[in-house]
Amino acid sequence: MPQQWEIPQGMTGDARLIRIGASLAGDEQYACPARDAVKARPGVRPLHWPAGGRERYEDFLLGPVMAALDRIEFNGALPEDVLRSPAREGKPLHEMQLAFVRHAVRAFHRRDRPAQAPPVGPVRLPWVVQREQHGTTWEHWAWGRRYENPEQGVREFVFLRYGRAGQREREDAQIAIAAFAAAFGSPARIPVPRWKPYRLGPAPAPVRWVRVAEVGLRDGSYKLLWQGTPQAAQQHYAEHGRAEAARLARGTEAVPGSACADCKRLSACQTVPRIPGVLGLGGFREPPPLREVSVSTLRYHRECPARAFASACKLPRAEDEYDERNRLGKAVHRVLELAHSGRQGTPPGGPAGDACGRDGVPQPDQPWGEEPNRVTGEAARIGAAMLRHHLDVCPFHSREVTQVRAERQFAVHDTAANVIVIATPDLLYLDAGSWVWREIKTTQRRMPRKEDPVLAYPQIALATVLLAEGALGGDRDGSRVELETLHPDYGDVEIIEPAHEPERVATARRVLREWAGPWRADELFPARPAPETCRSCPVSQWCPASMRTAPADGGAA
To answer: If DSSP states are collapsed to H, E and C, what string results for 255-313?
Structure first.
């Protein structure tokens, strides 16, 4: 039970307030139970906050969107006045953030809520359900927009989504907690300080009907997620929310990944590896702001700093982001991910089995793959050929292969650069006690270049450095990086052994320093427009400097 939870070593405070927000719930792909449990307790804090300055720009983009909508709905401001300066408080906005906030406010304002839905008006204060149990105060609430019709007893809660409504399925637990808070919550003032319980207002008018919806800020799309009586909301919460709330409150397992960057437990966490100098950077006069980076971010930054910034901000991306070859590569990777994931938990010395056997290769004359990367015709034939050649180089023919991890994200903290470095190997496996990191590349080039993969692929450089540093544990002496190349005519594997190739490790460190240095030093993230890069940029809609034709709906206006 949640009462068994103890304040982690290196943290202090009062754990007797547990605040469960709807957005905290759900089985997120890269969630960390330990981080969620601490986040759910606003009164718990680290003994020592991590050093580091503040970033120049806003880092939570829905905040300015909410503030702008508040000014329109509660202060009587005209939309055109708000859109001229949507960020009156807090950090300034990057020009791409500003374009998105303006677009998002317009999109929400013209959202396609069904005309037959009951009329509702905006509600300023959040709805909070508060109860005492065994000396602990529990609060349930939801962050988003709130509307009601007191005469009809209707309350409607609205989630905001960066892209289109319904673009991804929202977790049942999120919907259940939002419905529960709307059905039984009292209007509550935000406490000062924030680690105190909410201050509940007078009992609300009776609620007879609850609606939970979401609005997509890309296009103003509206999707009704759930509706029903308060009694139905109570039942929905009992089925989908109560166990999730308890799970969030008692979480202790630490899973290093994307959650590390905004985790107040970071300085006290004993699980995330701390490896100074992974990126080859240092010598800062003052600790720079904590950042998160992946190889993709560095690649984007080298092409255009504004693109890297927009991607980190989660600005909506173009739906036609990937061309046919990209989609084929993703389809092949997905087949291998599913096949290799079936190997998890295989005991040492266990049989290779059929998890990655010939029966799993798609028929070349049939469409295959998952949307949006389903392939047909010639692409299906080429991809099936690549997958057949993978069988010749698949590591699972070894009886020593154990501890398989396919497409599993992990993180290390480069304390010298103050960066959470995120990596998602295509495949990790333990071979005779040593970790093997395999990256899989698909190509259709007749004569693939024979450049050293450490120089050709920064993710190979990162893998080489992390294994050299022992970031994964295991026997370093036998650890290796494998680059698997799949071509329609063959499969090939090139091997790097960090423990026995110091020159290549030194090269890998230099490559990472050259890629990461300009990104770490950048504070402004300016656009670097060019016809070719703008044409293929998935976030050019938000870039005033883009050399790509603006979309018909006005996009970044």
So the answer is: CCCHHHHHCCCHHHCCCCCECCCCCCCCCCCCCCCCEEECHHHHHHHHHCHHHHHHHHC
Q: What is the pLDDT of residues 430-472, one digit of tens each?
A: 998 999 999 999 999 876 567 899 999 999 999 999 999 999 9
What type of residue is 207?
V
Q: How distant, in Å, are the alpha carbons of 244, 323, 383, 386, 451 from that of 487?
A: 45, 18, 9, 6, 17
Interatomic CA distance for residues 96 and 75, integer angstroms: 26
Under a CB-based contact definition with an 8 Å cutoff, are residues 489 and 386 in contact?
A: no
Tokens of 247: 């799970």
Structure tokens at 529: 């427009």
Task: Take residue 330 and report the two structure tokens written for it.
Answer: 């993703």
For the full predicted model, state whether its pTM sits above 0.85.
Answer: yes
Sign of CA dihedral 417, 420, 424, 428: positive
3-state DSSP assignment of residue 222: strand
Strands 199-200 and 291-293: unpaired
CA distances from 481 to 37, 347, 403, 473, 477 (A): 35, 23, 16, 14, 12
Please check the confidence at residue 113 and state whether its pLDDT lies above 90.
yes
